[in-house]
Amino acid sequence: MRGLRTILVEQNDLGSGTSSRSSRLIHGGLRYLEQGEFGMVLEANRERRTLRRIAPHLVWPLPFVFPVHRGDRVTRWRLAAGMLLYDALALFRNVRAHRMLGKRGMLEAEPMLRDRGLLGGARYYDAQCDDARLVVATARSAIHQGALVSNYMAVTGLERTAGRVVGAQLEDRLTGERGVIRASVVVNASGPWADQVRRLEDAGAAPLLQPTKGVHVVVDRGRIDHREAVAFTSPIDGRVMFVLPWGDLSYIGTTDTDTLEPPDDLRVTGDDVVYLLRSVNSRFPSARLGVEDVRASWAGLRPLLVDRDKLFTSKRSREHEIVHGSGGMLTLVGGKLTTYRSIAAEVVDQAMRELRHRDGRPRHAEARTDMEPLPGGETADLSQFRDRGLELGIPAVSIEHLLRHYGTEAAGIFNLGGADRRLFRRLVPDHPAIEAEVVHAVRRELAQTVEDVLVRRFHQYYEQLEHGAPSAHRVAELMGEELGWDDGRVDAEAERYLAFVSEGRRAAAI
Ligand SMILES: Cc1cc2nc3c(=O)[nH]c(=O)nc-3n(C[C@H](O)[C@H](O)[C@H](O)COP(=O)(O)OP(=O)(O)OC[C@H]3O[C@@H](n4cnc5c(N)ncnc54)[C@H](O)[C@@H]3O)c2cc1C
């Protein structure tokens, strides 16, 4: 949008790294208040407003309660002060202002909360998002503005001229093809892989990252029977954690532990699961969650900046930094999903400065990424699309699912099914995704493998009882029709997904 010719390469699927393993919150970050990082909360709250404007289908308001029990690390008065500040740092433009609740009000809001020792708490508002789809939508928006975006394209080395980084060596991980791309500015925005990529520029570069691992587990919502999102302090270690609604499911997170595990091979351990379940059981005693109740789980690495002050893990700053490497590559470290847009703008500002310094090009107008809707986000009023879906005879549950995931782009999916009604069929009876979405995922959303579709485009991996395994073959068939796969390839792609599911079960230790 600023007149640069841009290419983005991603070694796996878009969003397959940390960005699809978050708590799915677009939030100011209550716990950052405790750390006195007010500037960051202010910026995050502003971005929450921006993302709700440009992608209302992917970022929606979420009411929370924050109960306080006797002996909790966060006391009622402290929570009250924090809530006031939180509203102020949202410039009093959050969905609604917070409200403090007494014990009775809190139990009315969340009847299943532990009654004993409950002192009250607060109701406040933040936003929830579909993290993986937000990444894909952002990349697609870049494509609409003329950028080239390629997934399954790894950077394996850097091109240099007189010591300067002037491009990258690429490997297509699906075909094995190799090539080189030249660029005036190279940006390394590879999250927890940042040090690895930086070592391609400077083998002896000191690490910039000191990542921590965060785990979430998914259970049936009915087991906890909570009504809203719940933030609370874990009685085990006093950390703030969440129980978050996701349709009929709830996910619980997160842990925050130092780890040396590589980002490509993160494991959910029994200890992670037990910590999360024990914390929730202490607040919702009738839930009595056990390891056998965990339907799915995910783990991600927080790409945190190296800890210069040797603070505890969860007290470390989430602030980001743009580092200028010895060969001139810009490496971005840190940051949150919530602030991705403003951080990206900052990185491009830096790239523009470098280019201007080098060839004196004129200053280009700012990109209005805060106003330009992401694909599907053109309007939040989807009533006309709902009517169209009903006219076509699509079941109401699938219509709601389509509007929720695709916003205005649901119209395109209706059209696909309009041309071939069979595409309105559900893939499996216990998940609302329909066949037309597979075609859309390939044609519009850069899906290349069954995993791309079932894990990050549809979330069946997390939401469906058998992790989407019963859909695998049909998804491969539909993808094959779009991508020209023969029968052998269709079978192989489906098998690959089934192997991924089995491996995931092993890695998740459940
Ligand atoms: C458990 C957990 C919960 C979180 N919850 C929240 C939350 O609720 N809200 C929030 O705002 N933030 C949250 N965060 C933080 C947020 O998720 C991350 O800060 C953010 O997603 C990082 O994005 P990224 O693009 O820097 O990294 P990634 O999403 O990891 O992207 C980097 C990409 O670079 C690719 N890559 C690496 N090496 C190469 C190479 N050689 N060639 C090509 N591509 C390469 C990787 O495959 C990867 O996909 C959470 C983080 C964790 C771990």
Describe this structure in words.
The structure is a single chain. This protein has 510 residues and is an alpha+beta fold. 37% of the residues lie in helices and 21% in strands. The chain contains 17 helices and 20 strands. Strands 2, 3, 4, 5, 11, 12, 13, 14, 15 and 16 form a 10-stranded mixed sheet that branches. Strands 7-8-9 form a 3-stranded antiparallel sheet, covered by helices on one side. Helix 16 (472-483) crosses helix 17 (487-507). The longest helix is centred in the C-terminal third of the chain and has 21 residues, at 487-507. It binds flavin-adenine dinucleotide (FAD). Flavin-adenine dinucleotide binds next to strand 7 and strand 16.
The ligands bound in this entry are: flavin-adenine dinucleotide
Q: Biggest sheet, in brief?
A: 10 strands, mixed
Amount of beta strand: 15-25%
Report mean pLDDT, rounded to a whole number.
93
Approximate helicity band: 25-40%
**What separation lies between the terminal Cα atoms?**
46 Å
Q: Low-confidence runs (pLDDT<50, min 5 residues)?
A: 310-314
Number of strands: 20
**Rg (C-alpha, Å):** 23 Å
**Number of helical segments with 4 or more residues:** 17
SSE class: alpha+beta
Shape: globular
